[in-house]
Amino acid sequence: MARRPLVMGNWKLNGSKAFTRELIAGLKSELKGVEDCDVAIAPPVMYLAEAESALAGSAIVLGAQNVDVNVQGAFTGDISTAMLKDFGAKYIIIGHSERRTYHKESDEFIAKKFAALKEAGLVPVLCIGESEAENEAGKTEEVCARQIDAVINALGVEAFNGAVIAYEPIWAIGTGKSATPAQAQAVHAFIRAHIAAKSQAVADQVIIQYGGSVNDANAAELFTQPDIDGALVGGASLKAPAFAAIVKAAAQAKA
Ligand code: PEP
User: Which of 93, 214, 216, 247 to mutate to test the pocket of ligand 1 (most atoms within 8 A of CB)?
Assistant: First the structure.
């Protein structure tokens, strides 16, 4: 089954109003005429308004880096699904390893965020992946299965209809040391088979992005792999030419 690739930029804790305007202007011009790939950006929520207006007239879709499980009320500092929708955000990253680590987010808590997003009609981008120690101990598949099963156990496998999984080995994030195309493909195939064991139809349509030091030099080869449906990009998403080159590589490889 042909899946439309998705390349998404995770800006993390970077940017300003001016940076947001300039980067989006650069992306709009670099990506003119590129049609065979869905493209999303997740700026800090502070800049969603700036980004929404800068994106007017573009096919680039707005996303966000996090969401809270609560919808309204006395939850100081939190951001709800309704607030994200208010700015036109669609693809929402949850379970990023930086939040799992620095904010102690558990698999079960992340499954609640997944539920909140589905309830609101937003698209969860569920980040999963093993640490370096887990990788060296041969636990990659066990960790990925556990992180996916937390969602399946809470919501059923059908929750992955229209959702996105980002396989991001922690040892590859921000290190310049990407997984090789073959390494990533092996894990992506495992993830798809793990979901297929519950539902082949859900597995066939779920977008599985690779993330971890993707750049304009290594993207094309990663996208030749059949189960890599795009990328979640950190560092290289902060420069319009590099991010656009990754998008173009996905569009070309999957056309
Ligand atoms: C990320 O944190 O989602 C990521 C993939 O970062 P980088 O591309 O910088 O490794």
Answer: 214
Domains and CATH numbers, the chain: 6-247 (3.20.20.70)
CA distance 217 to 215: 5
Joined tokens for residue 146: 């556990």
For the CA of 214, the nearest atom of ligand 1 = 8
For residue 98, give the ligand 1 atom closest to its CA.
2
Alpha carbon distance, N-terminus to C-terminus of the chain? 13
Closest CA to 210 of 202, 196, 221, 199: 221
Helix (H) or strand (E) holding 141: helix 140-155
The answer to whether 42 and 6 are in contact (CB under 8 A) is no
CA distance 203 to 94: 20
- CA-to-CA distance for 23 and 60, rounded, in angstroms? 12
Tokens of 143: 């960790």
Dump pLDDT digits (tens) for 194-253: 999 999 999 999 999 999 999 999 999 999 999 999 999 999 999 999 999 999 999 999
Question: Which residues in 165-194 are b (16+ Cβ under 10 Å) and which e?
Answer: bbbbbbbbbeeeebbebebbbebbbbbbeb
Asked if 146 and 189 touch (Cβ cutoff 8 Å), the reply is no
